[in-house]
What does this fold into?
Amino acid sequence: MALPNYYTSLKPFRKVFASGTPILTYHHVGPRPKGARLKGLYVGEKLFAQQMAELAAAGYSTANYQEVLSHPANKIFVTFDDGFVDVLQHGLPVLNQHKFTSIQFLVAGLIGKTNEWQQKAGDVSESLMNHEQAREWLAAGQQIGSHTLTHPRLSQIPVSAAVEEISSSKKKLEDIFGIAVKHFCYPYGDWNQSVRDAVQEAGYETACVTKRGVNTAGTDRYALLRFTARYRSRTWRNLFSWLGQ
It folds into this structure.
């Protein structure tokens, strides 16, 4: 039986999860607004609660994202891209219930604004966490990482601009929140060798992509693999095209 292209429930993934370190990725948690084009980016609160409860019941727990490189047994790493407010509203209570920690990759230049990169493509407007909300997220024991300043496709802009997006977003988040920002996520999963090198040179310790798979000692720490979580559907192809898979 072929492995599903996205994560909905644990059963089909038990064997592959046991072979390495799994990372799940989410964008939105909560209701999908009318007119949303990228429907697969939304996981309802009920489904998210089911997914987290199932992992907990199977003996999985979470750890500080820093531990992703040590490949601890029976750990699941949960990531959120972009910093949407609905994750704080609908996802955090579920995480707290199971004593799960996760990391939210923030678009540093758009904190407190909206998803401008998606609106330019004709999608609906969605709110991003502001400074106070991001601090609430941190105070609850969750983590943050960088997702650039403005969410561009890094391999499609000049190298100097990519370096600025990568390095300045790290500094901006560290200045605002007073913590070290060690982890990066490539927007759209878009990267190349020059982009990877810029991430390493900026001082990040890891970076993650959107390519599916579990991580092992042989996985490039600047190209960590993740499974996209979503609802069960046969119409996932457009989503994975947008994510660069």
About this structure: Residues 119 and 125 are 6 Å apart (CA to CA). The radius of gyration is 17 Å. The chain has one domain: 11-242. Residues 238-242 have pLDDT under 50 and may be disordered.
